[in-house]
Amino acid sequence: FLSAHIHERFPALTPVAIHVSYQQRPERLMVAFSERFGTGNKHALKPLLIERISKEQRAMCRGDRASFDEAIAPRLVRFVTTHGPWQWSGTSGLQFYPRGELRTPWGSGRWGPLQPDLLYAD
Questions:
Q1: pLDDT tens across 14-72, in order?
Q2: What pLDDT is recorded for position 89?
Q3: What pLDDT score does 117 carry?
Q4: CA 11, CA 80: separation in Å to the nearest integer?
Q5: Is residue 82 within 8 Å of 70, Cβ to Cβ?
Q6: Which of 106, 107, 111 shows the shortest CA–CA distance to 122?
Q7: H or E element: which one contains 91?
Q8: Using CB atoms within 10 A of its CB, is residue 104 exposed (0-12), middle (13-18) or buried (19+)?
Q9: Using CA atoms, how far apart are residues 13 and 31, in angstroms rounded to an integer?
Q10: CA-CA distance, 87 to 13, in Å (whole number)?
Q11: C-alpha angle 32-88-26 in degrees, rounded to nearest 5
Q12: Amino acid 1: pLDDT
C-alpha cells in the first residue's frame, strides 16, 4: 500500500508493475488498481487505502525519526547491524549500519528503533 499512497500523491505517475500476491484479497486490489491506473478513476483506491490500525499503533509509527537512540532497543539494534544482509519482498541487499544508516538496492535511507521490539526504515 505504500506504493499506492505514493502514487496518489503523484497522480501523473503510472506504475509499470504491481505485485499484490501477499495480500488477502489480491483480486479486489487488482480490480482497484486497474480502475485507478487503467481508466483514470482517481477514487478507485481510496476504500482500500484506509488503514485499520489503532490510534496507539498510528502514534507508534509516527515516532521520533529525527534522531537515532540506540538505548531504546540495544539488543535489536545490535542484532540487525550484526546480521544480514536483509530482504524486502524477496529482494536482498538491505544492510542496517550503526547510527541509522540504511543501504538498499534502491538507494540509501535511514532506520532506527521506535520501541524495544520495533524499528522503522525509510
A1: 666 666 655 566 777 788 888 887 888 878 877 766 555 566 666 666 666 767 888 88
A2: 76
A3: 82
A4: 36
A5: no
A6: 111
A7: strand 91-96
A8: middle
A9: 18
A10: 26
A11: 25
A12: 44
Instruction: Encode 78-95: b = buried (16+ Cβ within 10 Å), e = exposed.
Output: eebbeeeeeeeeeeeebe
β-pairing, 118-121 vs 107-115, is antiparallel
pTM strictly above 0.85: no
User: How many C-beta atoms lie closer than 10 Å to residue 111's C-beta?
Assistant: 20
What cell does 64 get?
521520533
Place of cell 520495533: 118
Beta bridge partners of 101: 110
**How do 107-115 and 86-88 pair as beta strands?**
unpaired
Give residues with Cβ within 8 angstroms of 31, minimum separation 6. none
